[in-house]
Amino acid sequence: MSVDDALLVGRIAFVAALYAFLLVLGLLLRRELRTRASLLDERAPCDLLVVDPHDTAFEAGERIPLLSQSTIGRGGDSDIVLDDSFVSAEHARLGWNGRGWVLVDLGSTNGTLLNGKQVKRATSVKPGDTIEFGRVKTKLVPV
Amino acid sequence: MRIRYTFRTAEFVLLILAGAIVIGGFCLLSAVDHRHIVTGDLRYPALYVGSTLLLSLWMGRFAPRSDQLILPTVSLLAGVGVLVISRLDPSLGHKQVVWILLGETGVAILLALPRSVGALRLYKYTWAFIGLVLIIATIFLGTDINGSGYRRWIGYHGIFFQPVELLKPLIAIFFAAYLDEKHELLTGARLRIGRLRLPPFQYLGPLVLIWSLSLLLLVKQNDLGSALLFLGIFLAMLYIGTARAVYPLTGLGMFAAGVFASFHLFPHVRLRTEVWLDPWAHSTGSGFQLVQGLIALGAGGIGGQGLGQGQPLNVPVVTTDFILAAIGEELGLAGIAALLGLLLFLIFRGMAIAVEDPDGFRKLLAAGLMAILGIQTIVIVGGTTRLMPLTGVPLPFLSYGGSSALANYLIAGLLLKISSERAQVQT
Amino acid sequence: MNANIRRLGVFFLVAFAIIIVDLTYWQVFDAAGLQARADNPRLRYAAIHVRRGLIWDRNGTVLAGRSVDQYGVVHRTYLDPSLSQVIGYSSQQYGNSELEASYNDYLTGQKVGTSWQAEIDQLEHKPVVGNNVTLTIDDRLQKEIANIMPDQPSSAMVADPRTGEILGMVSKPSFDAGQIGNPSYWQALLNNPDEPLINRAVSGFYPPGSTFKVVTLSAALDSGVYSLDSQFDGQQATGPLTVQGHVYPATINNLGDCGGRVVSPPISLEEALVCSDNIVFAQVGLRLGSSRFIDYAQRFGLGSVPSFDIPVAESRIGPSGSSLDPVTLASSAFGQGGLHVTPLQMLLSVEAIADEGRIPRPVLVRSVTAPDGSVVQNEQTGTLGQPISSGAADLVKQAMTQVVGVGTGVLAQVPGVTMAGKTGTAETGDGKPPHAWFVCFAPINHPRVAVVVMVEHGGEGATVAAPLAKQIVQAALPLVPQ
């Protein structure tokens, strides 16, 4: 290989190296986003604020910490137990999908209301939204 | 007291990679000039690369949790800048390294200061005042070092500084503080004129101020680029801070009126517009630079002629405003796209930091600083490629220029400090 | 606020994308157009660095070479100043001329097939090496012609009538193309009233005189209006002849000195050519008529520019070209009137007689070869046309052989060689001596060389031009293969 050939290879390699650098930046960015998403998974930064506890053991104004996926129901194996006669055994599930909170009604008898509207399919919930499980009224609030 | 130290692995490895690319570029340049890869002077690039690594180690002590992708991106951009400048004029390349070292020192000091970024907002009127004094002082006491007929530099014993560059981050700090403080008022009640809803008059103050400043620059300094830039920064930050499109639109309208008026009042503005519309007709006169720049870009093609193997010195002021022509000729479209990609990555990174920061002032400041880089890039690259009238501003991190290098490193430093504080908040 | 920051981000993304699209336009789609602009300084740089191709004569002698200085700038060197009007010059100040201009694209390597190696060489900024051009010129002959011809405005050409190849071409005064970089030398060339920069052989413009009788005779025989035996008696042969009041005096019948002989009427048309009798040819022209005369003149190539490798002037029948009045027609028939021809035109005319009525395309370039020796362009031989039948050509050849044998062309005789020729003495009407012409080819059975000699204001064709042609034929025949 002559010096001229080497120069040509070096020239192409130099520009290619700039792209390689961009690629590495992109890979690091992706890894960082994944790490952060999983971090948020572990520490869901919202609580469920009890507004109207009705017959449950909670008091108004009490904060219930949320897991990344919390099932809500009357049954003892639910993550959050709401012992009220209008709440089904497996009433609903509230979880973090990596970007936001999602509320799913698990086929409850008396339904789940988000800001007064019936939740039919998986619906995204924002902090400040009111969620009603039967007669129990709660609010999603930041930690 | 136990000293906490974090080795910033990702940043350090990336800096070594960036450094290798820059040193490799210098070896390539040496091979072109001397047919041997280490005959050329590698002291300055080595000094530069070493300084970036030192800065990373320093940050491990004083800003351990700050963002790790910003410094490598900036270092690669500035390193390629030094490389291209050295290829065009080795002595300017050396000077640029010295300016960058000064900028890095500034970043190091900024990050080591115990005060938070938030403290800057306490002195917001001071920053605005310093900026205005600098500009007015330049107009009356400045030096015209390149014979343009306008005083744009302030000099002291042979060292010249362009205050307008430093004004960019200062103005961003002022706006961020102002808009954050007046946030509620600006988004709330407003004046109605027919169907047009305007903010209360007393808060139009800064808008009028910046509008006057832009036109002052335009008329007194013939610095359309900076005028455009300040207006752009202001409008972008106003938009972010108030979420009302009416502000930027009003500002833009006022600026357009100003430009229209100066088009008729000042012949140099009119000439500039004519050159933009038809540079070929002025190819031996006032359009010479633009035409030669385009020819250089064309000579580069997709892959470029290779570092040191093109003839970019045929383009006037190629080391500063027209560095893009040199990059385009020697690194080609591929090289320009990679460098613009790096700039865009930096801007997006800064905006992500802004988005994630809960504090209004820091959010606005980070976004505003990125708006400086973004708009400045658009203005000069667009000017070189005839997307808009040519207005001489430096291409961030790539053009030669001490004031510009210092200002850009200050911007990077502020961004690093904001990211560092955000990380502390999250902990 | 965050939504607005994201929108600003989208704005930047879009703006950068537009910039890339715009850059793509300049750097890809309009790149070639920008590079071709005259104000692109890279063009000049490339022009002075291109390894301009060599120009060889037919035997491989380097006629135009190159040297490369320490800065990689290429300089042109020229071997033979007598070829300066053929090869021309290649100069940074004055551009390119003649072959250096017409073959510039080959010589600078722009007309080469694209190969991978060529692409890579270009990417690596290797100096472009141009293609080499081999001429039909034989420089040995060229130098001899230059020596034979007098140092006064004149020109001579030698061609091979079988192929149309030009073997030698001299135009005097000449110049040294290697010296034109010197401004005072260049200025002297421009100021010289004898115009050395002009190639008289192809761009000189003269009344052909009696050499044109070859064309008139061809027309007379080919059209069947006359035969070689057609008789002219008394005043028909001697004159004076009056045409529409214009008197052609008996002094121009040339019968008193026909190769040293005194000829008396009656004479045949053949003898009229042998003695160059203007009175007879004036009558031949009148009888042929304007349109037929013009037709044949055009068939021989007047009124058009022959295809050639260097610029050629157009030979003209007269000022109007549409129709000739009887006086002009009569004068044109013996080579005066409004006729203005180039020596190349007369060479092509006698080549037609030599080659059975066909005019070969004049050729100056044998081949163009790439630096690796592969052929880029072959010799472009061909026929420009056939003005007369081969039978008529044979008859004209017979008469022209007699011209050299016993007529006005006796001084061109070469011992042991049969030759056909025609003298010409062209009056210029400005009081200066006439132009001396001679055209010929030899040997008559299988002609290998055709020659034209023209000396501006040189005097009699028979005494000035014919002896020069003799020396040229003597020099040329041994160099041209059978």
Written overview of the protein:
- The complex is a heterotrimer of chains A (143), B (427) and C (482).
- Chain A is 28% helix and 32% strand.
- Chain A is built from 1 helix and 11 strands; from the N terminus they run H-E-E-E-E-E-E-E-E-E-E-E.
- Chain A is rod-shaped, with a radius of gyration of 25 Å.
- The relative contact order of chain A is 0.15.
- The model of chain A has no long low-confidence stretch (mean pLDDT 85).
- Chain B is an all-alpha fold and 427 residues long.
- In chain B, helix 3 packs antiparallel against helix 4.
- By secondary structure, chain C is α+β, with helices and mostly antiparallel strands.
- Chain C is elongated, with a radius of gyration of 28 Å.
- The chains are: A alpha+beta (143), B mainly alpha (427), C alpha+beta (482).
- Chains B and C meet through helix 9, helix 12, helix 13 and helix 14 of B and helix 1, helix 2 and helix 3 of C.
Residue runs with pLDDT of under 50 for 5 or more positions of chain A: none
| Approximate strand percentage of chain A | 25-35%
Largest sheet of chain A: 6 strands, antiparallel
Judged by helices, strands and strand pairing, the structural class of chain A is alpha+beta
- The overall average pLDDT of chain B, rounded, is 85
Number of beta-strand segments of chain B: 4
- Counted by DSSP, the helix tally of chain A is 1
Helix segment tally of chain B: 15
Give a count of the beta strands of chain A, DSSP E runs of length 2 or more: 11
Judging from the principal axes of the Cα atoms, what is the shape of chain B? globular
Average pLDDT reading of chain A: 85
Q: Calculate Rg of chain B over CA atoms.
A: 22 Å
Helicity range of the residues of chain B?
A: 55-70%
In which range does the helix fraction of chain A lie? 25-40%
Q: Ranges of chain B with pLDDT <50 over ≥5 residues?
A: none
Strand content of chain B: under 5%
Overall geometry of chain A: rod-shaped
In spatial order, strands of the major sheet of chain A run 2-1-11-10-7-8
Distance between the termini of chain A: 66 Å
Strand order of the largest sheet of chain B: 1-2
SSE-based structural type of chain B: mainly alpha
